[in-house]
Amino acid sequence: MRDVSMIRTFARGGYLVPVAANSRFYYLHGVPSSYRYCRPWTKLFLDRLGREYFAKFGARLRITSLVRSVTQQRALARRNDNAADATGSHRSSHLTGATLDISKRFMSARGKNWMRRVLYSLKRAGYLYPIEEFQQPVFHVMVYRNYPVYVARLDERRRSRGSELAQDSSADAPGDKGAD
Q1: 126: left (phi over 0), alpha (psi -120 to 50) or beta
Q2: Cβ atoms < 10 Å from Cβ of 56
């Protein structure tokens, strides 16, 4: 994303989707309103991860970065030695809108360990690329375009297990011919 105008153009075209500043499962911290966007598959990941984290720990995820423009990335690089370039082959993946930063600040040790297991499991499966940063206390996560395939497979497995359970329970129902 070259600038905020390009972010708006991508959002109008559906290539980026808006991210609410506050939700039940996460909140944005320090993300300017014109940068509260990400790719649809990244939003799916954020919604699911936030829901699971909240269910397990009763706390919301703190998201400190989403899409960035070249201008914003250059400004960040001037004050943060850890920030990637704004151009070239080693440029920041935030420029694509597929990346978000999850703050480790206020996250319990158990929460951090759980997050590491989840992120690295999804990395091994080929659905995202996480980096745990230590200069900046964040999990930097680039979500791959194929993440919705993972979600669809999970949902399909749940549906098939649910129908198997329904078949098993109906076979054992009182008055059923198979219950003799």
Answers
A1: left
A2: 12
Q: Using one digit for the tens of pLDDT, what is the confidence trace for 112-141?
A: 999 999 999 999 999 999 999 988 899 999
Nearest alpha-carbon partner for 68 in 100, 41, 45, 42: 100
Q: What is the CA radius of gyration of the chain?
A: 20
**Architecture category of domain 4-168 in CATH:** 2-Layer Sandwich (3.30)
Q: Which residues of the chain have pLDDT under 50?
A: 77, 85-88, 91, 172-180
**pTM of the entire predicted model:** 0.82
Residues contacting residue 77 through CB under 8 Å, at least 6 positions apart: 83, 84, 85, 86
